[in-house]
Structure formats: C-alpha cells, structure tokens
Amino acid sequence: ITRFPLIPVRGVPLMNHIANNWDSIWAFRPDPSDLLIATYPKAGTTWTQEIVDLLLHNGDAEACKRAPTPVRSPFLEIFSPPPIPSGLDLLEKMDPPRVIKTHLPFQLVPPGFWENKCKAIYVARNAKDNLVSYYYFDLMNQTQPEPGPFDGYIHKFMQGDLSWGSWYDHVKGYWLEREKRNILYLFYEDMKENPRREVERIMRYLDLSVSDEVISQIVELTSFKNMKENPMANYSCVPSPVFDQSISPFMRKGEVGDWKNHFTPEQSKLFDEDYEKQMKDIDIPFRTLI
Ligand code: A3P
Fold this sequence. Notes:
This protein has 290 residues and is α/β, with parallel strands linked by helices. The protein has 14 helices and 6 strands. Helix content is 41%, strand content 9%. The strands form 2 sheets. The protein has a 4-stranded parallel beta sheet with strand order 4-3-5-6, sandwiched between helices. A hairpin with a 2-residue loop joins β1 and β2. α11 crosses α12 (212-221). Adenosine-3'-5'-diphosphate binds at residues 39, 41-47, 129, 133, 136, 222-224, 227, 251-254, 258. Adenosine-3'-5'-diphosphate binds next to α3, α7 and α13.
C-alpha cells in the first residue's frame, strides 16, 4: 500500500485515483433520480448513508444488505488496493435510486447533478471535531498522506492542505448554493442532539413516508453503538492493509466535543483566531466550537 501524494485539480488536492480519472468524473451524467450525499471527510457521511439507505428500504436492514457493493454509494470513493477505480464503473451496475457519496467540494461536483435537478444532502461538522476525526482517519488509512504530528496537522487543516481541500471552502461552497440547488444542509451536532428529528427531516426531503415505528427502528439501527458492530457500516470490508483499524477504528468515538481532548489551549486559541478570519464573510450556524 502506498501513501500517494495528492494531485491538485483546479487547486484542490485530491487523491490520485480521483485526479487521474478527472475528465470522466466531470463528464458524469447522473440520472435525475440519483441522490448525492456530499460531505467534507469525517463529517458524518457513513451515518447519513445508513439513514438514507434504511429510509429507502423502509427500515429493512436485510434489504440494505442486498446492495450491489459492500462499500455502498461508491462514487469516486472505492478503497481497493491500487489501481483504485474511480467508482464510475460500479455506479453503472447499481439500480436506481442510486445514492451517490462524494467528498468533492461544490465547485468540483459534476454539473450534470444540478442540470438534472438531483437531490443532494450535505452534512457539516464543526471544524475542530472534524479535524480530530480526520487526523485519526489519516493515521489509519494507509492510502492517505501521513498526517504527521497533531500540531502540524492543525496547520495543514487551516491551510486546506489535506485531501479534498479546505474545510472552510467546503462548508461555505454548499451553504451558499443550498437554496438555489435545493440542497438539504445538515449538521452532525443536530443529528447527535436529536437523531429522530433529523431522520424525519431527511424523510421529508426525500418525499418518503415511513411509519413512526419504522423511524424509531432506523434511529436505533443507526446509533453509534449499532453501526460500530454493523459490517455494512464499520468498513471492516476494507482490507486491513488499506484501513488499519488496529490504529484507529473507523467508528472511532462518535462524540461532539472530542477536540477538547486533543487541542491544547494555545492551539485552540490560534485555531479560533484563524477561524474568525476564514469564516468572517459567512454565517453558518455551527453551534459547537466552544
Ligand atoms: P469520530 O472519528 O469523531 O468518531 P465519515 O462517515 O464522514 O467518515 O465520518 C466518520 C465520523 O462519524 C467518525 O467520527 C465516526 O465515529 C462518526 N460516526 C459514524 N457513525 C456515527 C453514528 N451513528 N453516530 C455518531 N457518530 C457517528
């Protein structure tokens, strides 16, 4: 397994299997029934995928298991040993409605999604927890660049020098387009606070109607504890040379505020000062920086 260097695409550092397939990714023609789940990595992608999948299958976990690939929603995101395919081939084999996951920032999402008026769910997570989660992920994912010491990683995060680029640009890009493109913009912290409310919000956005009982079942099946045990969700399907979960499990902690166990007061102060600058032009209601 090689930790390949990132390759910039229009200024955004991407993993090489994405950058090397860029022309076909940009030209991708989605079906109008396709649903996009977009996130900055480690913001709650898998959680949201699991909720959506269960909603589409009326809470039937067995039906979800019959999905065509163990790593669901493969768009641009296949973790197989190199050469890593882009996921486009697998998409062709999926039946509609396809749920397509991506970490691309808004400006790099293939324009066909918006031309076809596809629905899109974006999940954002507060910067500091997102950073900590990404740090552990980069330690365990042997195809990502080495994260190095935590202090240096904070600087890389602030500079957008990580795969998929800047967190700040990412959360802003989708926020600014959410009304025009009818994007459902969710927050990880809201999902933690009241998962039922957020599951119902997703249900309404998808024009689905499931019973209260099924909603309860979905909330239960998508609890951190249950997803940690679920091979459909915990990425145990990815071979250990790629994801070394002995270093850090994919389902690591699932908490709000874990950054407090990692940032020193000095690091936190520096980060907050930079955050103010980077976010001064926008008011996205993140609730949990402190
Ligand atoms: P931590 O590293 O903070 O534990 P993604 O799916 O975007 O890669 O995000 C992974 C992060 O979401 C991890 O965060 C993981 O534990 C957390 N997560 C996954 N499922 C969750 C759930 N059901 N409840 C809470 N957090 C969850």
